[in-house]
Amino acid sequence: MTTPRSQDDVLLHPARMRIVVALAGRALTASQLRAELTDVPQATLYQHLGKLTRAGALRVVEERPVRGAVERVYALNESSAALHPPALNPANIARTPPEEWRRYYAVFIAALLADGSRYLASGAPDILRDGFGFRQVALNLSEEELQAMAMAINAAIAPYLALAPAPGRRRRLLATIMIPQAPPPDESAPPEQRA
């Protein structure tokens, strides 16, 4: 049986993370994935699909004969296709080393960079029409205000998560990152004790 830790090791690869993102909310064949992930060689794509399937992150939802071969349709095993950092268990938050979080964050950022770069290289992107953008803002929030904001964002997005692919709809990725700033040094502390 695949443990969350070994499954994370399988998911912690930029190309495999992109496969998981591509399959979010839909089922695709290897050929359909290849059409979306054009920079991933075909043989490499099949290797990644095999690893993800064996780890339980993907499942084969259909098999159909095509020109003497079997074409598989892949979908996410939703409960298994997520990273499981130990810190997500509240009991382990204080014990999770920053290096562990750096690993997850690095893969996340690598996948974002690849997706954005692929969009920008897709010919003549229409930045305004397509809604491509990114920005960083600083928010001064109490813990309660942070929780209220997170709930408001989730409530605003929830109705759109259920929308199925349809003519006139284009798949768009939305990513959020929240980074608390380090507190300022305590000016009243001796210099050797300041953060």
Entry summary:
The protein has 195 residues and is mostly helical. The protein is built from 7 helices and 3 strands, in the order ααβααββααα.
The CATH class turns out to be: Mainly Alpha
Helical run tally: 7
- Sheet with the most strands: spatial strand order: 1-3-2
Gyration radius (Cα, Å) is: 20 Å
Strand content: 5-15%
What is the share of helical residues? 40-55%
Fourth-level CATH superfamily:
Winged helix-like DNA-binding domain superfamily/Winged helix DNA-binding domain
Taking the sheet with the most strands, its summary is: 3 strands, antiparallel
CATH topology: Arc Repressor Mutant, subunit A
Kindly report how far apart the N and C termini lie.
44 Å
